[in-house]
Amino acid sequence: TPRLILVLGDQLSPELSALAEADKSRDVVVMAEVADEASYVPHHPKKIAFLFAAMRKFAAQLRDDGWRVEYTRLDDAQNTGSIPGELLRHAEGIGAKEVLATEPGEFRLIAALEECPIPVHQFPDTRFLASHGEFEEWAEGRKDLRMEWFYREMRRKTGLLMDGDKPEGGKWNYDHDNRKPAPDKITFGGPMQFTSDDTVEEVLDLVERRFDNNFGELRPFWFATDRGQARQALSHFIRNALPDFGDFQDAMLAENRFLYHSVISMYLNAGLLTWQEICDAAADAYAKGDAPLNAVEGFIRQIIGWREYMRGIYFREGPDYTRKNWLNHQRKLPGFYWDAQTDMLCVAKAVEQTRDEAYAHHIQRLMVTGNFALLAGIDPHQVHEWYLAVYADAYEWVEAPNVIGMSQFADGGIVGSKPYVSGGNYINKMSNYCKSCRYDVAVKTGEGGCPFNYLYWGFLHRHRDRFGKNPRMAQMYRTWSRMSDDKRQATLDSAERFLQRMSQGDRV
Ligand code: FAD
Ligand code: DLZ
Ligand code: SF4
């Protein structure tokens, strides 16, 4: 009897474990566009269109390779609306008694497959460098799970940028060189853009009809939607942007949404690219002298370090991780995360580009929208749901540890040793937002002062019992203590007034 082989929207890889376990001559691949997956958060229309188009093209490729594929379109009359529903429907139709799947990247769906009335065997997702077991082994018995130590093991394991058992150039990490402020001129024209083919156009029409009310602009749509295009986008980045990636990794510019970033996370996370080919291409550019070590090391660290580490944390921490709220933050996510109606130019720009591109780079996510939510005491679960919805690369396995852990410190310090908070100074140093902002970054309190400034001290003050003894924050608490009583009071009053106005819906 045939078995069903489930391929999910972010599992578009020919080397997928479920396919490797299957028998082309008797098994049937099931792929389905379903309402449940498309609406468990209000995904950005670009994210949905990207996945549906890439799914349709991947299905066509599997058929070319000789697989039998049962593909459900969102609009199909028989569509049951869920992954388990589609598995059951096809099992009945075909007479299959079991399903082979690759473990999904969200506990929500893992549980749904476990509860499915027909047996579903979930095989490990071998598209990652570290298996769950390997991460557990690494984490076992450690006092703290710092990414840097994990990263060094991954360098040794892959041999990437290794000189025997020593790191290339003598140091493991060249981040010190990677903190240059925004340059005056960007030489990179941005990620490679693709014109729509018939498959993409059809999907765009569908998404326009069905998800018109979701946050985010569907058009212009220019993402790669198959492996060949994604590889072109990768080569384009390696050739034209990688050399400057390191230097300006943390910079932000009001007029440039991509700087020297790769904009490949959505391709990598959906399975159109592999970590190996990306890292090999970068290491190769270094070996040929086309890109400097600080850029290549920094880039590779994001992928074999941060990305793998985040996944390890998600699967180690379990399904309750997204409910963590160590700082007990309860404020509602303000409306300007959806409509960009705020005078804080840095926030408005990050939200506008998120709406237009389903993309923001790391420092915008961490030090603008993330930093603000943390300073303002927003409920981290609401922050989590926002990030999960609005970015084309967002799946819980990578989004949750970045948001709940790294950005909101809601896990109490599993991912980070101190919260990523900063006043306006940091944003001013790394960007050109402040010079066109209604708020004055140099002013610390009062109506015209930059909200990041007083909210920062308000945050430290509010959580003194939690962070006061953290050696990495001692300096800041000393500065706070040294301020005059009047100044401290004015700062806290400004923060309080701002948060009140924000929460009652006034424009801030
Ligand atoms: P580049 O800057 O060019 O980096 C190269 C690659 O490294 C990325 O494509 C990505 O695969 C990987 N990478 C870099 N940083 C991280 C990281 N912290 N965690 C995991 N992978 C990383 N990344 C996601 O893929 N999905 C998410 O949902 C997501 N949510 C985030 C939420 C917050 C609050 C923060 C602070 C970061 C989040 N990130 C997420 C990580 C990072 O911001 C994005 O991977 C990156 O901005 C993608 O753009 P890029 O491809 O141009 O990356
Ligand atoms: C994100 C997403 C969306 C929007 N739609 C689908 C879909 O219709 N069918 C599908 O198989 N997968 C979709 N996905 C991706 C899944 O949500 C993803 O596989 C899980 O969240 C696990 O990472
Ligand atoms: Fe953002 Fe403050 Fe700068 Fe305005 S002044 S752009 S609010 S950091």
Automatic annotation (TrEMBL):
**Annotated GO MF terms:** lyase activity
Give yes or no: UniProt keyword Transferase. no
Q: Does the keyword Transmembrane helix apply?
A: no
Enumerate the Gene3D superfamilies for this protein.
1.25.40.80, Deoxyribodipyrimidine photolyase-related, DNA Cyclobutane Dipyrimidine Photolyase, subunit A, domain 3, HUPs
The record ties this protein, via InterPro entries, to:
Crypto/Photolyase_FAD-like_sf, PhrB-like, Rossmann-like_a/b/a_fold, UV-DNA_repair_photolyase
Keywords on this record? Lyase
Any Pfam family = DPRP
Q: State the name under which the record lists this protein.
A: Deoxyribodipyrimidine photolyase-related protein
